[in-house]
Design goal:
Chain lengths: ~180, ~190
């Protein structure tokens, strides 16, 4: 009797550490050899540190993936984590999409204070970048607000929080034009 | 403001003399979207029919301001636009179809987020010229025309000419983090 094929498992993999050329090529090469399919991934440098997160799908076990990626971490310059995740829910319906930009002099608490106001109205951050460049601190976030959210009130709350921190904030509608 | 070309502005699909059919819009990764479209004879019956079909398909698609032949599965350099109802439009030429169109000159790059019926699940930030002159031929008569325009009509023309050259907005993404999952709205 044949057993039904289970749906492919998704694995969330992170690779963090000292940057050098070839990390992505090596990581993805080893995953391809295992027959894993890369789905969504993102990679950037965070203050010069290599930071990659990816979700891939396929049959191999967590242990098999860890073994395959272990050589990356051999010299201690990179940390690799692998874990099975249940498939994501996909894009949830949003009332409207916004881009929040905050910038000003660096000081502790800018991100937590500003995004706290977003969380209070049920806003969901779907993409976030922060950068420290000299004394300038910058935050750019993509935000989905639920239908019926009071955008004017949120904007006022964000501005109040920003003003208290001595930084500036703008909230702009982020809708794409269909062409 | 650029001078609106009166000939192009006066053009409507009624000149084609055929009833357009509504065609299915193909989506990436359909190979036809990635191939360079063939140059066409704008006076041929086949191209006149295609032009009418593009306009008819654009008309029934909500929010659609332009459609290129590859998007209906035809690898040809033909597209239609009509940005007259869009809030970001400044000057415009109403509905028109161009064959074998090419960009003659362009200036003033501006970045904006685009979506596309052929890439329904993604949007992306794309830099495009804010002022542009395009040369092409009108279907039916084959008259050569030059369209100089700006703002949203300029962006739409560049997006459609790209389709005719096998390029999607994805090919012009402003950066590695400039492509976004399309939100579904309540």
């Amino acid at each position: 009797m044949s057993t039904p094929t289970p749906p492919p498992t998704q694995h969330a993999i992170t690779v963090l550490g000292h940057d050098r050329p070839g990390i992505i090529a090596e990581t993805t090469g080893r995953l391809a050899e295992l027959g894993l399919n890369l789905e969504d991934s993102t990679m950037t440098l965070l203050r010069g540190h290599f930071a990659m997160m990816l979700v891939c799908a396929g049959e191999p076990s967590v242990a098999a993936i860890e073994t395959a990626l272990a050589p990356l971490a051999d010299d201690g310059s990179l940390t690799v984590t692998v874990r099975a995740v249940s498939p994501g829910a996909g894009a949830a319906p949003a009332g409207s999409s916004w881009v929040l930009t905050v910038h000003g002099g660096d000081r502790p608490g800018i991100v937590s204070s500003v995004v706290g106001r977003v969380a209070e109205v049920g806003g969901n951050i779907t993409d976030l970048t922060t950068r420290l460049a000299g004394d300038l601190y910058l935050l750019v976030a993509e935000i989905d607000l639920p239908a019926g959210a009071d955008v004017d009130a949120l904007e006022a709350a964000v501005r109040t929080a920003a003003t208290a921190l001595g930084v500036g904030a703008t909230l702009r509608r982020a809708e794409a034009d269909d062409l | 403001m650029s001078a609106v070309d009166p000939r192009v502005a006066a053009w409507t699909e009624a000149e084609l003399g055929v009833e357009g059919r509504v065609l299915d819009v193909v989506t990436a990764p359909a190979p036809v979207l990635s191939g360079v479209g063939e140059r066409v004879d704008p006076t041929s019956a086949e191209v006149v029919r295609l032009a009418a079909d593009l306009v008819a398909t654009m008309r029934v698609s909500p929010g659609c301001v332009g459609l290129a032949a590859p998007q209906v599965g035809v690898g040809a350099q033909v597209f239609c636009v009509d940005v007259s109802e869009h809030p970001k439009t400044r000057e415009h030429h109403g509905t028109f179809v161009l064959c074998n169109a090419e960009v003659v000159s362009s200036s003033r790059n501006e970045k904006a987020r685009e979506g596309c019926m052929s890439v329904p699940d993604l949007t992306g930030d794309v830099k495009r010229a804010g002022r542009i002159t395009v040369r092409g031929q009108l279907p039916g008569t084959g008259e050569e025309v030059e369209v100089s325009t700006s703002a949203f009509e300029a962006r739409a023309l560049q997006h459609e000419i790209d389709h005719c050259q096998g390029l999607l907005f994805l090919d012009r993404a402003a950066g590695a983090h400039a492509i976004y999952a399309r939100k579904t709205y309540l």
